[in-house]
Amino acid sequence: MSNIYTDLFRTFFKIGSFTLGGGYAMIPLMESEVVDRRRWMDKDEFLDVIAVAQSSPGVFAINMSIFVGHKLRGIPGALITALGTALPSFIIILLIAMCFTHVVDNPVVASIFRGIRPAVVALLAVPTWNMAVAAKINLSNCWIPIGGALLIYLLGVNPIYVVLAAGFGGFLYGKFVQPTERNNENNN
Asked: Would the pTM of this model clear 0.85, i.e. be above it?
């Protein structure tokens, strides 16, 4: 019989170990482990964790692991999952720092990193697509993420303002537009 804390640590250590490209690249692996394999939460809960982790200060990967650990086992679970997620990166960075001066100009190492970059882009594309599907992005509302991305990229608008504006817009939609749409559907 396995201990839940051991399972949490091992799962998040594995996620932290095989996540190249940052927190967003870990979403597919975390979803596979937390939602599909272990069934610690469902897809809707997982999407909520992503949204809250993105809007919370701090490292995205650690935020996600903390939310999952806290849901399952409170503060001890949050500490175990955070440690499991952060420890592999700490160990790898420590090893790189110890060896960096010896390999910085090595053409093989440079080639490896050139090969990793496109794979990281793919790792980021998959969770972006999955989040769009789960958030029910369609032709009628795709202008929201596209407009937000353009505001940030082209005009340099602070992402915090984009998130706040989208949240306020969602509130207004839920308060005024959605009730009107429901009334029209019920009258038909």
From this structure: no
DSSP per residue, 66-129: HHHHHHHHHHHHHHHHHHHHHHHHHHHHHHHHHHHHHHTT-HHHHHHHHHHHHHHHHHHHHHHH
15 near 85, Cβ under 8 Å? yes
Say if residues 91 and 19 touch (Cβ distance below 8 Å): no
Distance CA 17, CA 22 (A): 11
64 within 8 A of 25, measured Cβ to Cβ: no
> Tokens for 14?
């594995």
Please write the tens of the pLDDT for every residue from 153-175. Answer: 999 999 989 989 988 988 888 88
